[in-house]
C-alpha cells in the first residue's frame, strides 16, 4: 500500500534567542540556512508540502522549490498556531502528517527518508527522528491524530500530543546526533558550521 504523507514545514519563528531578525536567512554552507534545509527534504517521498512562515523572503525560497506556502503573520502567538495553519492548508485527506523545522541544517535527506520508511511499516504509530534516548524533529503522526493536532492551543508544541500517546511513540535513529541540533543562538550556528567543515 502506498501511504500519502502531508508535510508541514515550520518556518515562522521569531528567532528571539538568536538576536537577529531572522536566523533562517543567515549564511550556511554557501547558501542561507532555509535553502540548505529545504534542499534536504525528500519531496518526492511526500504527497504534499506546505511551508508556514511570516517572512516574504522565506516564502520566495519555498516557491522557487515548488513548495506551497501559508502565512503566519503572528508567530509570536506560538508554534501551535503554525501547526494549525499548516494542517488547515493540507486538509485531513492524508495517511500521515510530518512536521519539520527549518533550523536543523545538518539534517540529511537520508535520515528523513529513513524516518518516512520506518513510519510506513507501522502507519498507525508516531515516528520521530532521534539519537540515543533523545527524540527530535521531524515527527510523523498518523491521520487518527489530525483533529488532536488541529486543536492544539497556540502556545502548545506537537510533543503535547505524542506525550499523550506514548504507547505508540517510536524513535528512528538519525545518522549523526548533530542532525538533531537546532540553531537557537549564534553560538549554535558556529558549532554547526565547524561541524560541517570538520
Task: Provide a compact summary of the structure.
The chain is an alpha/beta fold.
Low-confidence stretches at least 5 residues in length (pLDDT < 50)?
none
Rounded to the nearest angstrom, the radius of gyration is: 16 Å
Overall structural class, as computed from helix and strand content, comes to alpha/beta
The CATH architecture: Alpha-Beta Complex
Task: Please give a structural write-up.
With 198 residues, the chain is of the alpha/beta class. The chain has one domain: Spore Coat Polysaccharide Biosynthesis Protein SpsA, Chain A. Helix content is 32%, strand content 24%. It has 7 helices and 9 strands. The strands form 2 sheets. The chain has a 7-stranded mixed β-sheet, with helices on both faces. A two-stranded antiparallel ribbon has the order 2-3. Helix 2 links the parallel strand 4 and strand 5.
From the structure above, extract its key features:
198 residues, alpha/beta, Spore Coat Polysaccharide Biosynthesis Protein SpsA, Chain A, seven-stranded mixed β-sheet, two-stranded antiparallel ribbon
Topology diagram in text:
Layout: E1 5-11, E2 27-28, E3 31-32, H1 33-39, E4 48-53, H2 56-64, E5 68-71, H3 79-90, E6 96-101, H4 109-121, E7 126-131, E8 134-142, H5 146-150, H6 159-164, E9 169-173, H7 186-197
Parallel strand pairs: 1-4, 1-6, 4-5, 7-9
Antiparallel strand pairs: 2-3, 6-8, 7-8
